[in-house]
Design the sequence.
């Protein structure tokens, strides 16, 4: 694991010399990046191994599902509702110009299900749950709670990380379904209010033109995004060093890395799931 | 028996421990002191297998922790009870859950018995009735006592206390050491205490070692440490202003 924020650590020395030799700076940043990528890959393997066989405390899993999933529902509903509305506003320009009112449901549904819904909900999830998870694990690390687990002969990956990763993946799976339904509802409402498109017309445009696969693509993406948020936040949380400053930096790094992971995996998944 | 043989540990090119040789007999109460950042906590973590040495042997009852695999290390760690410098109480658990946690994770004990033992340990440390509070609701001294209760609830063979009285007032310090004494007498466990509070430590342990800049400078009777031939040891134990420190 890297030693982010530790006074005198190589990472901090490298970050602390912004006006040094640019080649050395690029090289050191590349090494930092490789360290983090390696740490994330290693943690992914450890999580996978810890799942064989799965020995997870149901109580812990439910606790995390409640905190990460149930408590995220309001913000996801709000995000999804207005996302549906935004899709209708954007599509409205062309719908009006070409009189294609019958395609509004399809247009809004297609973009929400396949792209905008998973990405926006993934980013909201990262901001709310990923950052909180990184901060919580980071605090546990700097206050020796993680060492405390190891001293009690408890493997932190199995006890701390695996339930969180599972909870985040399951939560994202559920949240995207809720989010998609709410976004469609928002699209219908804004379509009626802004463009005068009847609910039934919007609905038929949606169900007649979209395939279940369009919906499933978004769900699959959301599961990957949940995994990306989980692994990055757990990695940055557990590799934190250097007290409160280190925790703050870890949260920042976790959110940035999760956003990057979401966008990169979205690109790759879009290529694969066309 | 615990034995460190020529243990060396390096962090980022800096040698934190340099050829440490130390033996603690079964059932012995042993103290370790030294200035801040001298490597005391690192020794404790090496002793219970939380850190592996770069070189040297860490022997627990004939088994060298420096060479065993992670699974075996886990099994050996289960023989230890540890109080961390920051107590390391799990802040998402209540006080009662924290204390009961080692028994719950180890398994083989009925839930009712776990609860009975946890409540008994809490009463023993003077915190009866606090089981439903969270660690954040307790004072520093109370958290320390919860940490002690958790460290000993599973009746470990070896108990390690890292700075058990750091940041506590003199009265609470005396109470904590009195508690450690009672726990030790009750369990007969091997006890290793690291402390910067030299006076209280010397009153508690019959044998003490001093570490300075990663090297062992003294290992002998606690009563003789103030008159040690090493000037560094004498100054540290006596708390003199003048001297090499």
Sequence:
């Amino acid at each position: 694991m890297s030693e982010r924020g530790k006074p005198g650590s190589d990472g901090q020395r490298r970050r602390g010399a912004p006006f040094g030799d640019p080649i050395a700076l690029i090289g050191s940043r590349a090494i930092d990046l490789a360290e983090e990528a390696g740490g994330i890959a290693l943690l992914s393997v450890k999580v996978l191994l810890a799942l064989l066989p799965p020995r997870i405390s149901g109580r812990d899993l439910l606790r995390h599902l409640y905190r990460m999933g149930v408590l995220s529902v309001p913000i996801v509903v709000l995000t999804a509702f207005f996302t549906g509305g935004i899709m209708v506003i954007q599509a409205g320009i062309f719908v009006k110009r070409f009189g294609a009112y019958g395609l509004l449901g399809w247009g809004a549904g297609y973009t929400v299900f396949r792209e905008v819904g998973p990405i926006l909900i993934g980013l909201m999830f990262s901001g709310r749950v990923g950052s909180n998870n990184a901060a919580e694990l980071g605090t546990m690390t700097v206050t020796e709670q993680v060492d405390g687990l190891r001293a009690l002969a408890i493997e932190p990956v199995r006890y701390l990380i695996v339930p969180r990763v599972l909870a985040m993946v399951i939560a994202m799976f559920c949240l995207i379904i809720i989010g998609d339904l709410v976004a469609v509802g928002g699209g219908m409402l804004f379509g009626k209010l802004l463009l005068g498109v009847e609910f039934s017309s919007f609905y038929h445009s949606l169900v007649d033109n979209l395939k279940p696969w369009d919906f499933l693509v978004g769900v699959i993406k959301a599961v990957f995004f949940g995994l990306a948020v989980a692994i990055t936040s757990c990695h940055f949380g557990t590799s934190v060093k250097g007290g409160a400053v280190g925790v703050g930096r870890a949260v920042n790094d976790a959110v940035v890395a999760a956003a990057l992971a979401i966008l990169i995996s979205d690109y790759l998944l879009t290529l694969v799931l066309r | 028996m615990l034995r460190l043989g020529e243990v060396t540990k390096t962090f980022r090119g800096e040698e934190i421990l340099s050829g440490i040789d130390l033996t603690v007999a079964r059932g012995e109460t042993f103290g370790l002191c030294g200035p801040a950042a001298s490597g005391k906590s690192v020794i404790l973590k090496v002793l219970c297998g939380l850190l592996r040495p770069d070189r040297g042997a860490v022997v627990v009852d004939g088994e060298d922790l420096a060479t065993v695999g992670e699974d075996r290390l886990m099994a050996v760690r289960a023989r230890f009870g540890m109080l961390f410098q920051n107590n390391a109480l799990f802040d998402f658990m209540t006080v009662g859950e924290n204390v009961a946690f080692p028994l719950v994770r180890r398994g083989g004990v009925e839930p009712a018995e776990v609860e009975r033992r946890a409540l008994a340990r809490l009463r023993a440390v003077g915190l009866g009735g606090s089981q439903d509070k969270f660690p954040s609701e307790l004072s520093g001294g109370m958290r320390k006592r919860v940490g002690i209760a958790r460290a000993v609830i599973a009746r470990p063979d070896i108990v390690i206390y890292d700075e058990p009285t750091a940041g506590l007032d003199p009265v609470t310090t005396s109470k904590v050491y009195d508690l450690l004494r009672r726990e030790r007498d009750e369990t007969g466990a091997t006890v290793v205490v690291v402390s910067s509070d030299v006076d209280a430590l010397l009153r508690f342990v019959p044998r003490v070692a001093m570490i300075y800049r990663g090297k062992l400078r003294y290992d002998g009777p606690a009563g003789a440490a103030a008159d040690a031939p090493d000037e560094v040891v004498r100054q540290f134990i006596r708390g003199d202003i003048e001297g090499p420190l």
User: Anything to note?
Assistant: Residues 170-187 of chain B form the longest helix (18 residues). The mean pLDDT of chain B is 89.
